[in-house]
Automatic annotation (TrEMBL):
This is Thiol-disulfide oxidoreductase. InterPro entries: DCC1-like, DCC_oxidoreductase. It comes from the Bacteria. Signal peptide: none annotated. GO terms for molecular function: protein-disulfide reductase activity. Coiled coil: none annotated.
Length: 129
């Protein structure tokens, strides 16, 4: 099964992040599900992800990654120099996650909330669960 990125479907920044990944993932490695969708809720239950998660979540096989670990693990599969960001994993997680938490806590204030989800084009739609 392909790795799955769970994201906040109401968050403009999260939606932009998903679009960023799609544009740099020409092999279609990642699949996506909104945390608010039926598929997202089912995956969250299956992998014991808390309801109040305030993070992008990456599910790779039976492993679940949150916050900066999820973002950096995603980066290593993207085309171009984005792969190099994975090297930031050497920074201790509490330090990496402190920056992540600032963005997560302010994402609605800084980037706004969506009233409805964008319908992706058919070529990309199959990657959404």
């Amino acid at each position: 099964m392909n790795p799955v990125v769970l994201f906040d479907g109401e968050c403009n920044f999260c939606d932009a992040s998903v679009q960023f990944i799609i544009q740099r993932d020409p092999k279609g490695v990642f699949h996506f599900a909104s945390l608010q969708s039926d598929a997202g809720e089912e995956l969250a239950r299956k992998h014991h992800i808390r309801d109040d998660v305030d993070s992008m979540v990456l599910i790779e096989g039976d492993k679940v990654y949150y916050k900066s670990a999820a973002a950096l693990r995603i980066s290593r599969h993207l085309k171009g120099a984005w792969k190099l960001l994975y090297g930031l994993m050497i920074i201790p997680a509490p330090v990496r996650n402190a920056a992540y938490d600032v963005i997560a806590k302010n994402r609605y204030k800084w980037f706004g909330k969506k009233e409805s989800c964008m319908l992706p084009p058919p070529s990309v739609r199959k990657r959404f669960l």
